[in-house]
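User
New here, explain this?
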Amino acid sequence: MDLLIAKRALGLFSIGLGIVAVAWPQRVSRFFGLQFEDEAMGAFGAREIASGAGLLSPVKPGPWFWMRVGGDVMDITALARALDRGNPRRKYAIAALATVASIAILDIAMAAQATMNKRENAEAAA
């Protein structure tokens, strides 16, 4: 996949998700049945916004893809807590976990591609 296209698409996606988590932290937590403080969900959103802004900036995207991978690990860990059978929103948490895991695979692939192909990583700094 083209790193420039991936960095722009994932950058916009990250910023969108981050804005939702920062603007409506309680709704996001409640939707998935998470027991998060608003500040914690807001911090997750701020991390998404930061990684999105990094990907959209005119720098090499490799480190920002790795930041997304780290964020994916955090998200998977948080969503795993919502898989308890007593969570009435469990189905939504399972769907979100599957989605984040799929995105994590893409993020790992993009981060690895940027790390291994220095020329393409430099060219994607547009």
Notes: Residues 80 and 97 are 7 Å apart (CA to CA). The radius of gyration is 15 Å.
